[in-house]
Amino acid sequence: MQYVSTRGHAATPSFSEILLGGLAPDGGLYLPAIYPQVTPAELDQWRTLSYADLAFQVLRKFATDIPEADLLAMTHATYRADVYGNVRSGADAAQITPMHVLEDSDDKKLILQGLSNGPTLAFKDMAMQLLGNLFEYALDQRHAELNILGATSGDTGSAAEYAMRGKHGIRVFMLSPHLKMSAFQTAQMFSLQDPNIFNLAVEGVFDDCQDIVKAVSNDLEYKAQQKIGTVNSINWARIVAQVVYYFRGYLANTSHNDQQVSFTVPSGNFGNICAGHIARMMGLPIAKLVVATNENNVLDEFFRTGIYRVRKSAETFHTSSPSMDISKASNFERFISDLLGRDSARVKQLFAQVETQGSFDLSGAPGSDGDEFSEVARYGFASGRSTHFDRLATIRDAEQRYGIMIDTHTADGLMIARDHLEPGIPMIVLETAQPAKFNEAIREALGRDAERPAGFADLETLPQRFEVVAADATLIKNFIAAHTQLPIASATSITSTTPSSR
Ligand SMILES: *Cc1c(COP(=O)(O)O)cnc(C)c1O
């Protein structure tokens, strides 16, 4: 399997070659040169597989340069009931993504697929936990080290830290805005005592953290010298890991392959639903992929009008589903590349135009940049937008009607899914976080606190380990340089090599 850049760069690297990197050298995103296909016979065989075995079957089609025995070992090390054990009472953790049927009548079937049972209670654990194992494996083979630098306002940073903690060859330097995250999210990250995890609380806002990451990444000499890498949502391995649960959702809710299902996906950077698009391109019988957005409706606007218009920081709202508060959707270029028939020159031109003019228009209207919007429905996409009022009402409604508590992001999905129900086609709403992570909104909706999975009861009282730093890229570069000189002490190290000597 070879990979190509959406913008046409000449090299065609392998899975392992793009695993540790981010953007392609031309600024594009990687995609497989051709999508591997699943046959009906394979789908039949996959119906009875465990999640770990299913993940192996999907991954081996993309990671063709990793020996199959190694890949199988990694999917089994990752997708374990004890890693994804934070399930609702009555749910089976061994399912990894347990299904919760909300409605099941002749013309209406509505299902919640639980993706937030991992260590940080959000769906990012589904891919990030595998990424931790893939990174460790690839670095061991190269006798190399990686220093992950990231900025977070919550979910991504904690998922990355829980995936990379104790991994040899890897350090994580995570910037977060000092005193701006929720107490729960802060405690989740800062209570990690692993010596390879560095929490840097930056005196500033999230944008300051992101600017520092950009400044460090743009210093190519420093970046190479300090072996700086990222784990952001454009990482191809994260997308592939997410493809797996679309297969699982389909197989768990159908009994034969001429049935279809639809998915509704609470969306921000278009990473999660991009994986659904790829599953569909592989031949999985998906009827609709419904993009659910909140007030930050960049994607809903495109899927209604054909106009992709990114927002400025000042136009980006802080909402009660904060993990969907985006100004542009960093994985969207992958879908546009397919929509334009992989015409890399046009992809490059359109995204250059986004940088200079802030938008492109594929509506086909006079003066627009193309007419491919008319093709969007062929790819199954539909969309909707929700508001703070909608999500509180949906949280209350889910409690009354189904007796379950859902978080604000999942509520955006459930609300929008209702508008896209079709007779005979199960609608699967992806549950992307647990309510405990967003307790303020739960209190506002229900007048009481969210349930917390066992083991999280005293989270905020645990000792915390972090450094407060000024919003200054030079200071942070110096901090990283000072700490990359130290050996990576790893409690769970399974090799006897001294990391500092590699
Ligand atoms: C990251 C996140 C999203 C958005 O996912 P994308 O892949 O960025 O579209 C939605 N909900 C939650 C809870 C998240 O953490």
Structural commentary:
The protein is α/β, with parallel strands linked by helices. It has a domain at 93-120 and 240-446: Rossmann fold. Helix content is 38%, strand content 15%. The protein has 18 helices and 15 strands. Strands 3-4-14-9-10-13 form a 6-stranded mixed beta sheet, with helices on both faces. A 5-stranded parallel beta sheet has the order 8-5-6-7-15, sandwiched between helices. A two-stranded antiparallel sheet has the order 1-2. Helix 3 packs across helix 10 (236-252) and helix 8 (206-218) crosses helix 18 (473-484). The chain starts with a strand and ends in an 18-residue tail after the last helix. The site of pyridoxal-5'-phosphate has 16 residues, from helix 11. Pyridoxal-5'-phosphate (PLP) is lined by residues 122, 124, 155, 233, 266-272, 323-324, 409, 432-433.
